[in-house]
Amino acid sequence: xxxxxxxxxxxLDHPLGEVFGFFSRPENLERLTPPWLQFRILTPPPIEMGGxxxxxxxxxxxxxxxxWRSEITVWDPPHLFVDEQRVGPYRSWVHTHSFRxxxxxxxxxxSVEYAVPGGILVQRLFVRPDIxxxxxxxxxxxxxLLSSS
Length: 149
Fold this sequence. Notes:
The structure is a single chain. The protein is an alpha+beta fold. It has one domain (4-148): Alpha-D-Glucose-1,6-Bisphosphate, Chain A, domain 4. The protein has three helices and seven strands; from the N terminus they run βααββββββα. Strands 1-7-6-5-4-3-2 form a seven-stranded antiparallel sheet. The longest helix is centred in the C-terminal third of the chain and has 30 residues, at 119-148. The radius of gyration is 15 Å and the shape is globular. The termini are far apart.
């Protein structure tokens, strides 16, 4: 199975604890996800984040309804957590969220390793552009969300 990787990095003018705290609250994932995905968390609140936490979502991908379940497989506050798809549209999806203090700022690093049905052609034409668009949206809205929370 061919896997692909997307990496991104963003510097935020907020302290590490505040940034990690924002990301550790699952309800903020809805705020970070573009409206065109119609993303909703199905797991009833409160969701206690930690290793082994399972979270169920619903979204629309290319107009098709998708159910997604992720598991938090690594939990190391305030520096790192990893979520892995257990049920969803990808053959595999492992998203590593890393956080590093840099003075009063925080550097947020994302690394997503994933595999798709259909291989490299589907990846290039459909999947990669959508993932880049999703992360672009997130980078755009995140500073404002942190300032208002």
